[in-house]
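Side project, low priority. Logging it here so it doesn't get lost.
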Amino acid sequence: MQVNIKKLSEKAVIPTYGSEYSAGADLYACLDGELEIKPHATVLIPTGIAIELPVGYAGLIYARSGLATKKGLAPANKVGVVDCDYRGEVKVALHNHSEIPQTVSPAERIAQLVITPYITAQFEEVDELSQTVRGAGGFGSTGSK
């Protein structure tokens, strides 16, 4: 699948896949210098790119496991969503979950982008829903007894 990318800065790095079968393409920080993220703070990190996703696809922005486990840095909203009609700069709200300041360097891999198809539902209000064995059982209701 071809996805059009526009560099908004000379410093921007086009997303790359770490291996032939990687689901997520690495997103890179587009910074002039190092940026410190204080403990429990969130900073919006630019990537310097805009993306044109095909209709019916979305870009899901996930944490990079290495960055999350080694530095405690992960997207603040857990999973970011880039809609197919969005043409602005892709940015990552990176949150520092650790107790110490963390540094993000220019061109550092800060998140990963997974491109996936989606379904747009047509919601219809009804008076009743079909019955199931589970019914209205909520959080933890299907666990072992």
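Brief comment: The longest helix spans residues 65-71.
Revisit when time allows.
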